[in-house]
From TrEMBL:
Pfam families documented for this protein: adh_short (PF00106)
Gene3D superfamilies on file: NAD(P)-binding Rossmann-like Domain
Name this polypeptide is given: Short-subunit dehydrogenase
InterPro entries, sorted: KR_dom (IPR057326), NAD(P)-bd_dom_sf (IPR036291), SDR_fam (IPR002347)
Native organism: Nocardia tenerifensis
Keywords per UniProt: Oxidoreductase
Keyword flag Oxidoreductase: yes
Residues annotated as domain Ketoreductase: 4-193
Signal peptide: none
Superkingdom of the organism of origin: Bacteria
Family listed: Belongs to the short-chain dehydrogenases/reductases (SDR) family.
This protein's record includes keyword Oxidoreductase: yes
Length: 260
């Protein structure tokens, strides 16, 4: 076995970029993919400038052909696929009826379809790498449906279910599938987003916070399987409330924070 490898989508900026830099610094051969070629070029320069190994490529996560090509290229270079990080995502905020239907559909296509397509395509490489892992980026905004983030939350809730199912199915192949749950992160994705919950809860996490959480989660393979990893105090509190409080109370709390 060569040095470990990680394939990251949405790697040109934000959480994906921070994660790529962290894994490269820890000795991983990084596959960094995005539709932003300029951002990928800058990332590659930063990684190689510090002696790290990186392979970049253009990847639209809704395109199955591109997924097959990029994964094959990366595997040919790295020789194995230890971790797939499905980070690419898009967000549109606003009243549900004011957002054009194609924009809602794009959110589902990228945030859910991209994860489904990529994970399905990567299976053969993950299966052939002992102890492989899949990391899916969820969102604490999907713990309970958030006003003004309806389709975004729905896409992440679906990723939650997909993650849980595949973690059970793929245990037989020694593939671990986990979900990372930050709340709002200070990246370009939330620039200009002003919903009730972003105003009341604020944007308290950095991309580096989430990258550190991803790194820590991929280190933990204890006797008791764990699938969900909340990042930050707010996400932990919201997850605990959703788990233990009655549904009417959770609804009331979300109604309060969203200002509806």
């Amino acid at each position: 076995m060569g040095r470990p490898s990680v394939f990251i989508t949405g790697a040109a900026a934000g959480i994906g970029r921070a994660t790529a830099l962290l894994f490269a610094a820890q000795g991983y051969h990084v596959g960094a993919y995005d539709i932003d070629e300029v951002g990928l070029t800058r990332l590659a320069a930063d990684i190689t400038g510090k002696g790290g190994g990186v392979h970049t490529g253009v990847l639209d996560v809704t395109n199955a052909t591109q997924w097959a090509e990029r994964l094959a290229e990366f595997h040919a270079e790295a020789g194995q696929l230890d971790i797939l990080i499905n980070n690419a995502g898009i967000l549109r905020a606003g009243a549900f009826e004011t957002i054009a239907l194609p924009a809602h559909q794009a959110i589902i296509d990228v945030n859910l379809g991209g994860v489904l397509t990529g994970t399905h395509t990567a299976f053969e490489y993950l299966r052939d790498t002992p102890g492989a892992q899949v990391v899916n980026l969820c969102s604490a905004s999907a713990i309970y449906g958030q006003p003004e983030l309806a389709s975004y939350g729905a896409s992440k809730a679906a990723v939650k279910s997909l993650t849980e199912a595949l973690d059970l199915e793929w245990e037989a192949h020694d593939i671990r599938v986990i979900a990372i749950w930050p709340l709002f992160v200070d990246t370009a994705m939330v620039d200009g987003v002003e919903t009730g919950t972003t105003k009341s809860l604020g944007v308290r996490l950095t991309a580096e916070d989430v990258a550190t959480g991803i790194w820590a989660a991929t280190r933990k393979r204890g006797r008791l399987p764990r699938v969900h990893y909340e990042i930050g105090a707010q996400a932990k509190v919201l997850a605990a409330a959703a788990k233990y409080a009655p549904n009417w109370a959770v609804r009331t709390v979300n109604k309060y924070f969203s200002g509806t």
